[in-house]
Amino acid sequence: PSVRPRHAYIPKWHYDMLFDSQRNDAYEMALKRSIASVRTGKGLRPLAPAAVDANGVDIVDDPRDNSWEARARRAVRLGKSPPPPPPRIAGWTSDKSANQEVLVLDVGAGTGILSMLAARHGADKVIGCEQSLHMCDVGEECEVLNGYATQCLLLNKDVRRMLCKDDPLLEKTGGVKPDGTAPELERRADVLVYEVFDSGLIGEGALHLVHHARSKLLTKDARLVPMGATVYAQPICMRTTTINCGDESFDVSCTNRYRWRPDYEGIELGSSEHSSSWIALAEPTEVFTFDFYESALNMQPLERLVTFDVDPNTCEQIGRARSKLARLMREQREREDGGHKEKKPEKVDVPPPPPKEKKPPAERLDDCDTDDDDDDEEEENKEGEEEEDAAGFSSTIQREDADFEASVKAAISRLPPDELDDNGPPLVCNAIAFWFELHMDETTTLTTSPYAASKGNRKGPTWQQAVQFVEERAVRVGQDLEVRAKHDTYGISFELAPVVDVSDFSSDTGIPLFDASWDVDRQRMEAVNGNLARAVVQSPLEFRKCAGAAVELAARPQDFELDPQHAARFCQRMLS
Q1: Among 267, 295, 316, 395, which is most buried by a count of CB atoms within 10 Å?
Q2: Could you state, in order of their start, the residue ranges of all structural domains in the chain?
Q3: Which GO terms label this protein's molecular function in UniProt (predicted)?
């Protein structure tokens, strides 16, 4: 037919992945090497093979184990280079026969790009799984259009619901599932490729997906692409001051107090839109290292204390510039009011931009005599000085680079408007930015760092940096800022450690409007409400008990120290 109803759609972020050549190239190189090593049965041993027992369950390394395998795994977890293998395994050969068939499992297949890359580089069979029915339709069409229909199979499945034919759970049923259908895999896969990462790395359940696949769907020496990841974090100041509406602006700086939240959001800190909206307060620090071969270890929640040293190279320069610019702004306001017109603005001590080549002055094209050139230049200089004074704040920074001037102004305006001096004014930490490096294999790494371009690397559009806003805290140059970093296997979060030194209590005075104990009580009550809702839905007897308690609370709220309106509202909702 010429027209048919649309049966699928592609979310916008899928196109970011499709056009991310750096991501696609990194996955292709890692897949090519992994499939080749499985195909020949030779090659480097995976850097962090998991130890498993007879039931296929991962075994966590004993710290006293000094074998090469254990030392290699510990080195990878710490982000270090593994020790060289002993000669007896330098030419390690797997238990597979040469030129054997290679089966690849693609988790989160989406449009099928990674499945087709695996098929292009020698995989005999690729089974992809995708939870979205729409994306399954799109991915299947892409694979057929590119001629990989016989090699690639795309299933609308959650990988955690997939089974292999040799699964012990299917022994009693003769190798079929309880509903009589065949298992998704005839045998265990040799390579696992997956792209189930968000801006915060593990927010899409990557650790759980890999753990299930290694336990149920992969061979013991299967290759993982990617093989690991390292997470870096950095405290930043990212505050909002004014918004422009037409010719006027509004001061919204008070909203910064309420911006903290327990989760993170994706922000492209290196983009032109956000590059001048934040200030780095310390050097980036490694906070977590994930070795995906150690799937059992990764399933354990982890918390650690990270100490950041407020960077003097950044903060002192910005602090001095901020202090002097504040004085110059006051002087400018006085000049606008009619006073101190004769006072010259000070020159701001800020880091200079890269030097520019000065061009020779253009030749005059008018008919004036050359003898009058000097007089004309003096008159132009005087007029230029008057125009600068009239221009206002732009005359306070003596720089040729307009972009640099604008970025300094933006940086200064985001800092708290306290009374300033030249002795290092306090900065405000109100957010933690973090990003990751994906270790595709032993030689290929993908980064989402906002500093990738400055280090000669490329960063694609697939992932942004993750930014979590925390309670505001004033910090000074040279101060140690302690941050608690933790992950619960589903997401990474940060919080500022409580202030221990009594002399530092003033850092929280006035900012933010944040009560940590209140938030703990709120979270506890949310958990109680959730458990209560599940109980009353599942059991009529529980609902009857809760309804009776609600009536009693509404009838005698003073006995339970409750607000009468809140008690009545709770009773009304329960009975309705």
Answers
A1: 295
A2: 12-43+93-225, 230-271+279-309+424-515, 518-575
A3: histone methyltransferase activity; protein-arginine N-methyltransferase activity
